[in-house]
Write a structure and sequence with these properties.
The chain is α+β, with helices and mostly antiparallel strands. It folds into 2 domains: 4-71 and 345-375, Malate/L-lactate/L-sulpholactate dehydrogenase, four-helix barrel (Hypothetical Oxidoreductase Yiak, Chain: A, domain 1, Orthogonal Bundle), CATH 1.10.1530.10; 78-298, Malate/L-lactate/L-sulpholactate dehydrogenase, NADPH binding domain (Ribosomal Protein S8, Chain: A, domain 1, 2-Layer Sandwich), CATH 3.30.1370. 40% of the residues lie in helices and 17% in strands. It has helices at 15-29, 33-48, 59-68, 96-114, 131-138, 194-201, 224-227, 250-267, 295-298, 303-316, 332-344, 350-362, 367-375, and strands at residues 4-5, 11-13, 78-82, 86-90, 116-124, 142-151, 171-175, 183-187, 212-213, 219-220, 244-245, 285-294, 346-348. A hairpin with a 7-residue loop joins strand 7 and strand 8 (183-187). The chain binds nicotinamide-adenine-dinucleotide (NAD). Residues 51, 53-54, 126-131, 148, 150, 168, 170, 172, 185-188, 192-193, 196, 286, 328, 330-331, 333-334 line the site of nicotinamide-adenine-dinucleotide (NAD).
C-alpha cells in the first residue's frame, strides 16, 4: 500500500490503519491487548484532533521508555487515601493512557455519589492529551477541571529567567452540553507543548518566534537549542540543550504554571518538576489534580445548558478580527480538524513517519505486515 502525500509533502496515514499499527507495536513491546488498544486509540485520537504533539509521534519515545523502565506496561492504580469525595491514587508509572482512564472513572463515580469529587493522581506515566480526560467526564454529564505537572521534566524557563525550572504543565476543563459536543479547553502553560517543538524539529509545522529562549536569553522559533546534540537522533531529548520553552502570556502563564506545580505536583504527592541540590533529574511522571462536579447537584432543570448555549452564541457573534474567519470556542478547532482528518487521513512529516516505521521494524513488524496493518479497516 503506498500512502498518499499532501501538498506540503506530508505522508497521509489513514486513522484506522494507524491505530492497527500502533496497537501491534505496543502489544509486541509488552502491553496487554487492551492497554495496547487504549494507547493506540488515544495517540491516534490526539492526531485526529490536530494535537500531533501528543499523538503517534510519541511511539518511538514510549517504546524506548518501556526498555528503560521509565514507563511500565499493564499497571492498575493503587488507592493511597480515600475519604469518599477526595481520593489520592498512585499510577505506579504505568502508561498514562490506561492509568488516566482508571483515575477519571474513579472521579466520575465519586462525583455521581457525592456531587463533587477531587482526585489527586500521582506517578502516572505520560497522560498524553489532557483534553481526553475532560471529554471522558463530560460524556457522563460531569463538569471537570484537570491540572497537570510533569515531574522530572525541566524544559521550560520561568518568566524573567533562562534556566529550566518548569515543565509544560497543561490545564484542561470540560463543560458538558447535553446532546451536543462538549466544550473542551485543553492547553499547555508553555507557549507551545514540547511535542510541538518535536514536530517542528522533525520537519512539521514551524514554531512561533517566542516559543524558545536560547541559552543566551534570546527568543527564537528554532527548536534545536531545546534538544542540543540529541536534535539529530531518532529520539531527541528536550532538555539536552541549553535553551528552554517559554511560558505563554509572559508573567501570567508563568504564574499559572506555578499553580500546576502546587496542585498537581506538591498537593497530590506526585512531586514538582525539580528541586534544589538534586544532581539527578527526578523520575519522569505526570501528576494530575482533578475536580469533578455533577451537573445534577447544581441544576435540576436544563437552565445550565440553555445559558451555556446562549453565551456561546453571544461570544461567536463577535465581529471577526482581521485575518480571522470567526471566533471559536474551546474545543471547536479540534472538532473541525477531526472532521477533515477522518476524511483525508493524518498528515505526518516524513521524518516522523520514518521513525515510527523504524520503531515498528524494531518490534519485528516487516514491510508486508506493516502494509497489511495500515490497509485493514
Ligand atoms: P494549543 O496551543 O493548540 O491550544 C489548544 C487550546 O486552544 C484548545 O482548547 C483549543 O480548542 C484552543 N484553540 C485553538 N485554536 C483556537 C482559536 N483559533 N480560537 C480559540 N481557541 C482556540 O495547544 P497546546 O497548548 O500546544 O497543547 C497541546 C496538547 O498538549 C494538549 O492536548 C495538552 O493537554 C497536551 N499537553 C500534555 C502534557 C502532558 O504532560 N501530558 C504537557 C503539555 C501539554
Amino acid at each position: 500500500m503506498s500512502l498518499a502525500h499532501d501538498k506540503q509533502g506530508n505522508v497521509l496515514v489513514p486513522a484506522t490503519g494507524m491505530i492497527n499499527l500502533a496497537r501491534e507495536i505496543f502489544n509486541r513491546a509488552g502491553c496487554n491487548p487492551e492497554e495496547a488498544d487504549t494507547i493506540a486509540t488515544r495517540l491516534t485520537g490526539a492526531n485526529l484532533r490536530g494535537h500531533d504533539s501528543h499523538g503517534v509521534i510519541r511511539i518511538p519515545r514510549y517504546v524506548a521508555w518501556i526498555g528503560e523502565g521509565r514507563q511500565v506496561p499493564n499497571q492498575t492504580i493503587d488507592v493511597v487515601q480515600d475519604s469518599g469525595s477526595i481520593v489520592i491514587l498512585d499510577g505506579k508509572f504505568g502508561f498514562g493512557q490506561s492509568i488516566g482512564e482508571q483515575a477519571v472513572d474513579v472521579g466520575i463515580e465519586r462525583a455521581k455519589t457525592h456531587g463533587v469529587a477531587v482526585v489527586g493522581l500521582r506517578h502516572a506515566g505520560h497522560l498524553g492529551r489532557i483534553g481526553d480526560w475532560s471529554e471522558r467526564a463530560a460524556a457522563e454529564n460531569i463538569v471537570s477541571i484537570h491540572m497537570v505537572n510533569v515531574r522530572g521534566s525541566l524544559i521550560v524557563a520561568p518568566f524573567g529567567g533562562v534556566s529550566k525550572r518548569m515543565s509544560t504543565s497543561p490545564i484542561s476543563a470540560g463543560i458538558p452540553v447535553t446532546g451536543e459536543t462538549p466544550i473542551i479547553l485543553d492547553m499547555a502553560t508553555s507557549t507551545v507543548a514540547e511535542g510541538k517543538a518535536l514536530v517542528a524539529l522533525k520537519g512539521g509545522k514551524a514554531l512561533p518566534g517566542d516559543a524558545i529562549i536560547d541559552g543566551d536569553g534570546k527568543l527564537t522559533s528554532n527548536p534545536v537549542p531545546l534538544y542540543g546534540d540529541s536534535a539529530t537522533s531518532t529520539n531527541p531529548a528536550a532538555g539536552d540543550g541549553d535553551g528552554a520553552l517559554t511560558t505563554f502570556g509572559a508573567h501570567k502563564g508563568s504564574g499559572l504554571n506555578f499553580l500546576m506545580e502546587m496542585m498537581a505536583g506538591a498537593l497530590t504527592g506526585s512531586g514538582c518538576a525539580g528541586g534544589v541540590d538534586e544532581p539527578e533529574k527526578r523520575r519522569f511522571c505526570n501528576g494530575m489534580f482533578s475536580i469533578y462536579l455533577d451537573l445534577k447537584v447544581f441544576h435540576s432543570d436544563d437552565s445550565f445548558v440553555a445559558e451555556v448555549k446562549n453565551y456561546v452564541a453571544f461570544l461567536k457573534s463577535s465581529v471577526p478580527a482581521s485575518g480571522c474567519d470567526a471566533v471559536l470556542i474551546p474545543g471547536e478547532k479540534e472538532q473541525m480538524v477531526m472532521a477533515d482528518r477522518q476524511a483525508h487521513g493524518l498528515p505526518m512529516a516524513v521524518d516522523a513517519w520514518n521513525d515510527i516505521v523504524a520503531t515498528a521494524a524494531g518490534q519485528g513488524i516487516d514491510q508486508d505486515a506493516l502494509e497489511s496493518l495500515l490497509s485493514k479497516a
